Amino acid sequence: MHNDSTYYKPVNSGFFYSLIFALFITVATACHHSDRPAQSSRYLTIAGETMGTTYHISIDTFLDIKMEIDSLLIDINKAVSTYDPASLISRINSSDEENLVLASNIHFQTNFTNALDVYKATNGLFDPTVMPLVNYWGFGYRKRQVLDYSDQSKIDSIMMLVGMDKWRYSEQEAGFEIRKPTGAELDFSAIAKGYAVDYIADYIEKTGIKNYMVEIGGEVYARGLSKKNKSWAIGLNTPSEDAGFTDYEDIVSIDGIGLASSGN
Questions:
Q1: Nearest-CA neighbor of 197 among 246, 257, 251, 263?
Q2: Could you tell me which of 261, 170, 156, 155 has the C-alpha nearest to residue 216?
Q3: Which pLDDT value is given to residue 112?
C-alpha cells in the first residue's frame, strides 16, 4: 500500500553522541586558546633605503599601510638626512647665512631640541655639530677617504666651528629661527635613525597593530610576536670593521623596547 508519509531513518545514537563530544572538545579548545595573541596568516614586509642606510619593517596585519609608512620615512629623510643634499638639514648646513628663519618642521625641530638636551646633559660630550670634523676624517656624507696624514692646523680651524653652544635656536609663530657660525654644520646621525624608528612604531601602534618590528640602520624597536609566534630575535652585529652583515656577537629577544644592534 502506498504511504505518502516521509520515512526518516533513525539517527545512530553512538554517532550522534560522538558528534556532540567532538563539538564540545572543539569549542573548549578554542576557549582555552582565546587568550593567546591572534596570529594573522600574513606579515607585511616593507624594506628599502632611507637616511643613507637601509630599513626593514615587519608587521602582523592585513592592512596595506606600506604607502603611508614610506611617506613618513620620506618626510623624515627630507628633514634630517645629510645624505640628501635637498633636505632641510643639508640646506641649513650649506647656507652662508648666519641667521635663518624657516617654516615649521616637526622632524628637524624635535631632533634639534633632543640633541641640544643631550648636549647639555653630557656637558658637550655628545655634540651634533662635529659634522665638519667627521667629513674631514672621511666618515661623513662626503665621499669616504683615508687621510695619509692629519693637518693639525686644519683640525684646529675646524674645531672653531664645533660646539652646539655656538648655535642659537628659537621658535617663532609660524616656524623657527636658527643662528649659526658660517661654515658650521649639524649631524643628527646619532639620534635621527632612532627617532625615525620611534616615529614609525608610534604610527603602527595607532593603527591598532600589536605585533611588529621596525629596523633602520641597525636601530630596532619591536613589540609582540614575530611571524614564528615567538618574541622578536635580534642579532647584535659583531663589533669589527670587517664584520659581515650577518656576523652576530649575540642574539637577544625584545618586546616593547628599542636597541642599537650595530657593532661599530
A1: 257
A2: 261
A3: 96
Please state, in angstroms and as integers, the Cα–Cα distance from residue 202 to each residue in 33, 41, 186, 207, 213, following that order.
29, 23, 26, 9, 12
Hey, what CATH topology would domain 89-186 get? T-fold (1.10.3980)
**What would the pLDDT profile of 50-61 be if each residue is shown by its tens digit?**
988 899 999 999
Question: What phi and psi values does residue 110 have, to the nearest 5 degrees?
Answer: -65, -45
SS3 120: helix
Q: Could you tell me what percent of the chain has a pLDDT over 90?
A: 56
- Cβ pair 261, 218 in contact under 8 A: yes
Residue with the three cell numbers 614586509:
45
The CATH number corresponding to 35-82+188-264 among 3.40.190.10, 3.20.10.10, 3.40.50.720, 3.10.520.10 equals 3.10.520.10
What residue spans define the domains of the chain? 35-82+188-264, 89-186
